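A quick aside before the break. I want you to see a complete sequence-to-structure record at least once, exactly as it would be stored in a machine-readable document. Don't worry about memorizing anything.
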Amino acid sequence: MDNINFLIAFFLVGIIFILFLFIISVFGYFFFFIITKRSEKNVLKKSNLILERFLISFGIGISVYISYGYILNLFNQFNFFTAYVCILFFDIGFIIYYIIRKKRINLSKSYVLKIKTFLLNRARLLSGLILLIIIVLSFLLYWDITTASLGLLRRYPYKWVKHAYYLIENGSITLENLGYGYPSGFVFITSGSLLIWPDYLTAYFFMKLASIFYLFLYILISFVIL
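That is the input. The structure line, written in tokens, reads:
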């Protein structure tokens, strides 16, 4: 397979990954919103950093999602409607509520002001530029490694695709040992991303290329921590 086809698959995997990331982050922000509303202490390291708020929301959301996945697993009901559409409708409802509640505050002006503040801050602008360079270099390095052959990486054979597909097709995780020290919760994350497009070829490329997007996510997390 040539680089053009790999590039198309890469963008498809990126859309699936980013969409799932957004859905889970909005889902997690609901719980984060409740926590910050009831807490008198600011839990954020940098209260005006949108990226930190987003990553914390994703962390909370994925934790709740895995727990929700285990509940669905008990009833063999992990599928597109219960594990994807329900979360999506929940997010839409929360977004509508959040916009109505914050109507008194002009949200667009608030975020525009934060963006302007970021751009006028040379230290943050330099940090953002360094982060962008790291992401681009990481992409170039991993792209050569990932596209070196059509097969999956040796440490992630077709067995992992089989486990993810078993959950999608049967609504519950297989009792067979997953191997490689991965907890079964990781299958919920992988399968949850693929529910929107459970095509076998798409699942294959997701297993092969999603590691690049996970690397970007880890770099962002490290950037916020530092």
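Two observations worth writing down. The chain has a mean pLDDT of 79. Residues 3-225 form one domain. We'll return to this after the break.
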